[in-house]
Each structure stands twice: as C-alpha cells, then as structure tokens.
Design goal:
This protein has 17 helices and 18 strands. The protein is of the alpha/beta class and 514 residues long. The longest helix has 17 residues. The radius of gyration is 28 Å and the shape is globular.
Length: 514
C-alpha cells in the first residue's frame, strides 16, 4: 500500500466545475510499483495548475480546518502502520446551518469504518508530507501554502458570540470572519507542506547528490550516474556552506550540529562569517554521517531551507548565506599532440554549468532527495528548458529513483515525448469548454510508445505536427504545381507526410505532361 489519490470531485471552484477525476483506472504501468505517477495535461489555460493548487489547498484545510470554501469529495489511500486505509472526505454547504460542513471517514482493511466528526483530520489519516516544485510562478503556491498562517491570525470566538447574530455582526470586520475557538493550535513544525523554491536549487542538488554518494547499494546510483555523465561530471568532490553568525542574535543550532560531526569539516572564520568546507574525496564517509545527523536527505534539505530564509525577528538576513558545490569533471583523453580541455579546471563550481545543465541536474537530484514515504509530490512542468534528449530520459530516470518509496507523484507537462512513456490510464487530459470551465477529455486510444507527434496533434491542439510556416509554404507550392520548384523542394524535405505529398504531385504532373 502507499499514498494514492483515488478520486477527486470539485463542484464549483474557479475554472473547475462539476469535475470528477479518477486516479485508479485499470491499465497503469505502475500497478505493481510502490509509487504512483499521474500526469495532468492540456493546453495553456485548461486548468492544470489550478487543479494542482486545489488539491494542495484541500489537504491544507484538512490540517487547519480553514480554507477550501467549495464543495468537494476527496478519496485517497495511505499505509497506516503497515495496514492500508482509505480516507473519504466530503465538504458541502449545509443550508439549514448556513455553513460549510465536512464529513470524513476511514475504511480499514477488515471492512470496518470509522466516522471522523472533526473537520480537522487526525495526523495519522493525512499524507506524511506534501511537496511542491514548480518551474512557473511561485506566488500562487505561496498564497495557498501560507494560508495556514493567515487563517490562525483571526481571533477565535466563543460559542456565545457564534450563537448570537447581533454579537457576531459586531465582532466581524471586513477582514475577519469569526470562527470556532481552536483549543489545540497546530504547531508550525508539524506542517507537512513545503514549496521547493527555484532559488534553493543548489541545496536540492547537494542533498540529492549526497544521497547518491552515501548509499552505494541504492537504485539511485545508476540513474544519477547517467545524469552526471550527461553533463560531463564524474562526481561531487565537495561543498561549502557559508554562515553569517552574530553571537547574540543568529540561530546557531544548524551550525553547532555541524560542529558535532566527527571528524569535523574544515571551518574558516572571518569576522561574523564562517565557511564550512566538506572534502568528499578525502572523507567520503562524511556524506553519510551528515545525512544520519539530520535523519535523511529530505530532513537535511528542510533544515538548510530554514537557514536560507531571512530571520525577521533577529538579524533580518539569512544565517546561511550561500551553498557552493565543487564538481569534478569527467576525465577526457587528450587528442594526439594536444591537451584536450587543458583550459578547464578538473574541479569547478556548480554555478559554472549552463542554466539548462544546472536545471537538469537539480531536478533529477530532487527525485533522489525526496526519501520520504506516504507523501504527495507535485511537479509543475519539471521539463521546462530541457532539450528533447533529456525530456526523453525523465520518466526512465524517475522510475528508478521513485522505486521503493510509497508516494504519489502528480506531474503537469507540455512534453509529448514524456507522455509516450505511460498509458492513458495515468493521464488526465483537461480542456476548457465553450462556457470557460475545465472539463476532462476522455482518451480513447492507447498512447504508450506512440509517436510524440500524434500526441501533439490529438491532445495539445496543434492541428498538425509540422510547423505552421512550413505547412503554408508547401501547401502553396503544391497549388502552384511548378515541377522545377517541387523538385528543388524534394531535396530539402525530410521523410514523412509532406515528402509523400510532393512526390505524389510530381508524378501527377509528369504523367499529364507526357
């Protein structure tokens, strides 16, 4: 068993209207795997990102009791202490009470069912974590993921105010709506939601590569090795963390933890700055010791993430100023009579790679870093800025990295080549109808191993798989019917539909001129 979304129904929210989606259809390639992988696809504006944010907002509301003010039904499965359980949550407007009502229940393997009265679903019945990575705007995600803090800013009201309409009217302001008193506020550290910001890509890459280095038996070895090879890297040689620590103000807990390592990393100090340097060539075991110190690579990343945030209550700037990765270039045999790549140092900084190389390495390392279980992982267009060769490799690499971890991964994409690696049962195709609502389009033909150009035409509404200019240019040439022009074009056109059209037209013209 694993974290698995089963069904989601949205009555009316933003673009989503009467939308009923199932994630348990037959014919999935991942049926025998520990993880689940689903795609949300469609043209821009079809509601993909809106749907992802809605899923996260619903799970947030199950923890805080706030937000998701719309009718929905959500069904999912968890592995609860080794016993798979199904959780069903329904939210609807109770006309008599003039309020939103949440009804939830848990179904156990023996068929017994437990009804949960509280709109805040108990921790054991929610995913261990929800992680979001987007290559688009992070602002919309911020507004959802920070809602839990905004919601708790409203002062709680007692039952006397809630029951008396006049007192309730006096109590409420345009920016505040009274809510029931929460006698057990949720501690911030218990919040399982994390937005992986693009500005943290160095930290993500570091944690993923540390896991790769530390576990020689892991299935992550082969796929991450191929990623490193693709960008010309042999290994991670070391890394440094630069802290700015003010004795009486800064949070020194992370830095002091590093000091407890045995042997200690090299520490250089200048004024309030401290540079902590790890040499992984001389001391490879320090990667595993560091991961053990924090209880896993994802826990290590979360600790780094907090240190990279501004400290508004004390210093006003991050305690951890920057992260540098030292990469060792793959050795290349010099050509005869010359020194190949003599001008390129054998060890160089991660930041020296191109934007595309850093993105590819970082996003693949992200999959290695996420060593949690029973969680929901959301990747919003992870293939952005990748070349087609790398896009073709993503699912193959992801399959090996996700194996053995009981998580559900939801991906939005515009990449046709990625979708040829899954079946239609793993894909939800959205389209905006004439009324402006998002609706699911039923996929009636198999897509596994299909030519990506067919997906472009059928799903992404390109109408034709060839560029619009080439289509117009060749159509006009066919209409003119000039044999000399068509013969010249035949030398310029690659194999496929248009080459066949021009050859066919030339045969017609030749036959008529005899």
């Amino acid at each position: 068993a694993a974290m698995k979304l089963i069904r989601l129904y949205i009555k009316d929210h933003l673009l989503l209207h009467d939308l009923n989606l199932r994630f348990d259809r037959d014919g999935r390639l991942d049926e025998k795997e520990s993880y689940r992988l689903d795609f949300l696809v469609g043209v821009n504006g079809s509601g993909k990102s809106t749907l992802l944010r809605t899923v996260v907002e619903i799970f947030t509301s199950l923890q805080t009791g706030e937000g998701a003010e719309y009718q929905y039904e959500l069904e999912y499965e968890l592995e609860n202490k080794g016993q798979p359980i199904k959780v069903l949550v329904r939210k609807f407007w109770e006309t008599g009470l003039e309020a939103w009502r949440v009804i939830s229940s848990v179904q156990r393997p023996d068929g017994s069912q437990e009804d949960l009265e509280n709109p805040v679903v108990d921790r054991q019945y929610r995913p261990e974590g929800i992680v979001v990575y987007t290559t688009g705007s992070e602002e919309e995600w911020d507004s959802i993921l920070n809602h839990r803090y905004l919601a708790t800013n409203n002062s709680p009201a007692n039952n006397e105010i809630l029951a008396d309409k006049k007192k309730r009217f006096i109590y409420e302001t345009p920016t505040q709506v009274v809510k029931k008193e929460n006698t057990e506020p949720i501690a911030q550290e218990e919040m399982p939601f994390l937005l992986l910001r693009s500005s943290r890509l160095n930290g993500i890459t570091l944690c993923g590569l540390l896991r790769y280095l530390s576990d020689t038996e892991s299935v992550n070895q082969q796929p991450l090795a191929s990623v490193l090879d693709a960008v010309g890297i042999e290994k991670l040689a070391g890394f440094s963390l630069r802290f700015r620590i003010y004795d009486r103000l800064s949070d020194k807990s992370f830095y002091e933890k590093l000091n407890s390592l045995d042997p200690q990393p090299t520490i250089l100090q200048q004024a309030s700055d401290r540079l902590v340097v790890f040499n992984l060539i001389k001391n490879l075991g320090s990667a595993q010791r560091l991961i053990n110190l924090f209880g896993g690579t994802f826990e290590l990343f979360k600790a780094l993430d907090v240190q990279l945030d501004d400290d508004p209550t004390h210093t006003g700037s991050p305690t951890l100023q920057d992260i540098n990765l030292f990469l060792q270039r793959r050795s290349i045999e010099p050509g005869e009579g010359e020194f190949a790549n003599a001008h390129i140092p054998s060890v160089f900084l991660l930041d020296w790679l191109s934007d595309g190389e850093r993105a590819f390495l970082g996003r693949m390392a992200l999959l290695a870093m996420l060593d949690m279980q029973d969680s929901l992982i959301i990747l919003d267009e992870p293939e952005a800025h990748f070349n087609d060769y790398w896009k073709r490799e993503i699912i193959n690499i992801a399959d090996k990295m996700l194996a053995g971890r009981y998580n559900h991964v939801l991906v939005t994409t515009h990449s046709s080549i990625m979708l040829s690696d899954v079946t239609e049962s793993q894909v939800t195709l959205l389209s905006k109808n004439s009324q402006g609502w998002s609706e699911e389009v039923v996929i009636r033909t198999p897509i596994l191993a299909v030519d990506p150009s067919d997906i472009m035409v059928d799903w992404f509404e390109t109408k034709k798989s060839v560029g619009a200019y080439a289509t117009r240019y060749l159509s006009e040439a066919l209409e003119r019917g000039n044999q000399e022009e068509l013969r010249k074009l035949l030398d310029q056109i690659g194999p496929g539909y248009w080459r066949y059209r021009i050859q066919d037209r030339l045969e017609e013209l030749d036959a008529s001129s005899r």
